[in-house]
């Protein structure tokens, strides 16, 4: 079954739901999901509507045009997607394997619905696993001097492969503002702390030092400000005095994996809307 | 601000959302929440729609009539409520205080939106607390012989006070089928296990004996089959070999309180739909 | 059954467990709990030992003296307690009732093992509940000018009643360094965030603004640095875009209650050791 | 650093800790962990003691003999292990990949401390991954007729490789009593429900049907009674009406992975004691 997905945000006012639902019903579409949210403080309406287009009277390629008058009337920010479109994904890794390995298994099993077109890394360590899954692996070393050059190479590869989504699977390099701007709300990072606690480097060390009883992981879209992008998902695990710093790091890996995988899944299923440096997630 | 709330379930088909949203928009209502769910296996549509009726053109008392044609066309099961209507609540308790005390504090602070009209107990222990909160307390002892008679007294009191919802706050008595029928989906119980594990008596003892690593609590609507009614909410807490049976019971109280309070809150806010011995909770 | 409890910390070296266990066994004591922990990075040994003193050959009042040679040999920081000693507790409250109500119920039901000797508040709101439980209530208003004077009154009351532990049950006033010094590691506060995220005022507002997906609460000993004392316990609850700021605050109350109650329970049961601004909790 | 580990259970009585600690201290051992537990209802003492044997006066191969007199005096069930001994592991899989992939990555990264000597499966699907990690893969089909013969083959392989621990990573076959007896408390299974809810087949289907709000996974030692062996670890994840049966299954995989990995880790680190169909886990 193929479905169309509309993601919408606009100023809230009367009649929006009626118009959207009318557009679908009048054209013989069958709604599968209608998720809606209103930020009453800011007066903003959000929706994710998914409908079966088997009997839809408007041909697929004309839906966008056909919906435009409604979108304009309500000053909507919107995007239209189809369940049949597989997003093209690039994974950036460093030396840590746990998130990368976990993601590859999930893509392989079909749990994550997308095509991993390439893997980029500043190290060679993860190449064998990429090979195992038959995904091209590009080793692009990075240091202070060659950063611009390296990013240029990366951007070229991303362009060549028509990449829709970049996943930083514990990629320990900071991307330039320029790079980020090219993939606004399309770069997902996993930070190994419960943000905004412990942004930046060595969060487990600092969590251990502070004596917290819970550690966390945070998946967010990357912005030009380090670890301050819109949060997509967070989760936690308990620790105690019995846990050493090494235990913090090991336990943390389990939640890093899960939190990153959930964020990627929701993004690929077009369930995330970004607004005001926050996310609406219609999970 | 006063709002109207429609709870709807009906066979799924095209155009339902359009009709509901049209009814509201055409009469100048402003939708606050539109929660919808489709059980695709069974082909059933569920919705909870809440809208501001400040400018609604249909007078409050005529809304139901005015909506009826739509309801009939789509074979809807539906009910209409208003945020201004306070539900009348009866709490049944036995000797255990934790849930009762917790509920009274939540009603008192306004977190739970309803009026506790009376407390019924087969013991006298909880009377002082009911007195403190100024709620009438009826001591109706129960044993095998007088059960019918006792229930008759209870039903009379419930009728006199126009009770909408009964909360069994660790009330250790089984209600008759007749009694339950009179308050179908309006009696909320808290069971001290993660159902369907350990239904019936002494669940903590059995959980301890089995050596589980997690204990739970379950809030559900009461049906004629013990501990098998539709589940509204569940939660859990970790235990270990370090926990004695007494620790299981003590830790369990914390989740019993929370799970019961959440279920009651959602019920009072008209967020629960029952279908096929399961619940849809638009939390 | 009466038991003795030894809390010990000292530089780690060979033979400590043998000496402690030998002291107990040689005097016919029966160990109930022997919890031990070694911070290998810092080379510190911690233990909590509890034993039945029914047949103990050393009379209760001589145990401390009798143990002293061992303590000195190993340079132990230690304290000796008896399960029969009820700690005297003062609760400080402001206008928020949820933690206060919860604590009173737990002390009343015997779940928390201590005597609430008095309640101190800068407001009168909580007096009726204190009255209900028969606990003296002292209304001591506080403002910028009278703070020193107010604290003097409080300290006097605490001294008169021989208070062992102060619980700040959402008491929204900052205590002076002098005050804190008098009750080092004996003042437990509940902070309504997952520290070190959002220290200081209005943490829920800031969590909402940041768009976090999880909120938390932290119970810690009060030190002169605001919200930076040793953490005893933390817990969290999930939130989503569906939750308003008011929902954050309401959901947070449930974890504030639980986290504070657990920290108080562990403290009263002599299960908490403080070291290096962190805690070892032998739960 | 090499350490020795003693796992002990015996009738509780005075002096046990003193004797164990004395044995270690008198021979110049340095205790790293001393975990102890008493089941007061049944009067049983449990301990796990780990000590650095760098300076231990008793040679490694004589420790057991040297400890025996103490063990006999206290009627101890005990076993002695060394951190340097790598346990030999066999993994049994069927067609589902998630637990198998996860385990292989954890063994590969060193998080799980053991040697995977072989993989046995009734299907060929998982062979490529076993090959990738260089682990021999044995395809032993099973059906009602050949079960005895197939198990004989398996037992032979396990013997040849000197296997210490069998992990059933979603291996969907029931082992015979004979087989289980040969590996008492050394076969770890993952069951995809929160036992004792939904033992047996298709637990997610039944959980979905029952309308639970939480699903779980349980790792346990295999006994001759299906899904009734001693529980090592359990964990849960929330579900709602929004989750389809497929979502239950997908979400469940995440906790199956984690729960199985934790149980295996604790077993390999000699942290699990079995008693009375329950476990003491010194995590």
TrEMBL record, chains A, B, C, D:
**Pfam families per record:** ACT, Formyl_trans_N
The UniProt entry, under InterPro entries, shows:
ACT-like_dom_sf, ACT_dom, Formyl-FH4-Hydrolase_C, Formyl_transf_N, Formyl_transf_N_sf, PurU, PurU_ACT
Record's keyword annotation contains Hydrolase: yes
EC number(s) given by UniProt: 3.5.1.10
UniProt-listed Gene3D superfamilies: 3.30.70.260, Formyl transferase, N-terminal domain
GO MF term list: formyltetrahydrofolate deformylase activity
Q: Where is the active site?
A: 227
**Ranges where the ACT domain occurs:** 5-85
Q: Which GO terms describe its biological process?
A: 'de novo' IMP biosynthetic process; one-carbon metabolic process
Q: Which UniProt keywords apply?
A: Hydrolase, One-carbon metabolism, Purine biosynthesis
User: PANTHER family, from UniProt?
Assistant: FORMYLTETRAHYDROFOLATE DEFORMYLASE, FORMYLTETRAHYDROFOLATE DEFORMYLASE 2, MITOCHONDRIAL
Role according to the record: Catalyzes the hydrolysis of 10-formyltetrahydrofolate (formyl-FH4) to formate and tetrahydrofolate (FH4).
Q: Provide the protein name.
A: Formyltetrahydrofolate deformylase
């Amino acid at each position: 079954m193929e479905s169309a997905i509309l993601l919408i945000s606009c100023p809230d006012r009367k009649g929006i739901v009626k118009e959207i639902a009318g557009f679908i019903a009048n054209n013989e579409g069958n709604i599968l999901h209608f998720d809606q949210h209103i930020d009453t403080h800011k007066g903003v309406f959000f929706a994710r509507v998914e409908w079966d287009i088997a009997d839809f009277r408007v041909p697929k390629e004309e839906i966008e045009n056909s919906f435009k008058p409604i979108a304009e009337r309500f000053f909507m920010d919107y995007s239209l997607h189809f369940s049949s479109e597989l997003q093209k994904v690039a994974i950036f890794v460093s030396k840590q394997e746990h998130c990368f390995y976990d993601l590859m298994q999930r893509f392989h099993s079909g749990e994550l619905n997308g095509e991993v077109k390439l893997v980029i890394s500043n190290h060679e360590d993860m190449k064998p696993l990429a090979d195992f899954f038959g995904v091209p692996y590009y080793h692009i070393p990075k240091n202070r001097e060659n950063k611009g050059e390296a990013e240029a190479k990366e951007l070229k590869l991303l362009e060549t492969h028509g990449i829709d989504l970049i996943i930083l699977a514990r990629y320990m390099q900071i991307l330039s503002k320029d790079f980020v701007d090219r993939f606004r709300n399309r770069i997902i990072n996993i930070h190994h702390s419960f943000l905004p606690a412990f942004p930046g480097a060595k969060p487990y060390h600092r969590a251990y030092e502070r004596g917290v009883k819970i550690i966390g992981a945070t998946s967010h879209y990357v912005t030009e400000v380090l670890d301050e992008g819109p949060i997509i998902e967070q989760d936690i695990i308990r620790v105690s005095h019995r846990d050493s710093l090494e235990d913090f790091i090991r336990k943390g890996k389990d939640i890093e994996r899960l939190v990153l995988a959930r964020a990627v899944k929701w993004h690929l299923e077009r369930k995330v809307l970004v607004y005001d440096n926050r996310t609406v997630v219609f999970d």
